[in-house]
Design brief:
Elements (H helix, E strand, L loop, with lengths): L1 E7 L5 H14 L4 E7 L10 H16 L7 E11 L2 H13 L4 E6 L7 H6 L2 E4 L7 H19 L7
Helix pairs in contact: 1-5, 3-5
The structure holds S-adenosylmethionine.
S-adenosylmethionine binds next to β3 and α5.
Length: 159
């Protein structure tokens, strides 16, 4: 399986970089992982709703240009659908069985994802109603994808 994670914004915190590197390394046993990190647009303080939409649109265009046509797209969105770890594992397993071997996960920047990106996605995945910073979200996603592969392969993993 080819997994691409398209993310808006860089990882600045060292402790997150270490965690991301660790789970990327662990995942390399199960899939071909590619992380595409896109520059976020500068957002001034006290930004208007209209300016927010313009920035999200610009970031969204960059995201869309990094999605392959044949890819199954999972957008991370607070308002999306929540899955248990077992359900996410099942979803990834079913996609492989159905011949979808290219999966793209998308993590938005601090302002979130544009409508165009959400419309392109095949599934919107929520990790709860809480808002997580995009940097931390990347680590959480990698850990959950790793957990999925452990579940799919019937390998032990702490509950
Ligand atoms: C700081 S959040 C953006 C917050 C923005 N106000 C919004 O509503 O999307 C940055 C990105 O992290 C991801 N994210 C944050 N919390 C999430 C959650 N609970 N479930 C799924 N994705 C989340 C989303 O991709 C989001 O675009």
């Amino acid at each position: 399986m080819n997994i691409r994670i398209v993310c808006v914004g860089k990882i600045k915190e060292k402790y997150l970089k270490l965690g991301i590197d660790e789970f990327s390394k662990r995942l390399s046993k199960y899939c071909k992982l590619e992380i595409v990190e896109l520059d976020d647009e500068k957002a001034p303080e006290n930004i208007s709703e209209k300016e927010i939409e313009i920035i999200k649109d610009k970031e969204g265009k960059k995201v869309l240009s990094n999605i392959k046509d044949n890819s199954y797209v999972v957008a991370l969105a607070i308002e999306g659908k929540s899955l248990s770890s077992e359900e996410l594992a099942k979803k990834l397993e079913n996609l492989t069985i159905q011949g979808n071997s290219n999966i793209t996960f998308i993590i938005g920047g601090s302002l979130g994802l544009s409508k165009e990106v959400l419309d392109r996605s095949n599934f919107k995945l929520s990790f709860s109603k809480m808002t997580f910073p995009h940097q931390l979200m990347r680590l959480i996603l990698l850990e959950q994808v790793y957990r999925s592969f452990r579940i799919i392969n019937g390998e032990p993993y702490h509950k």
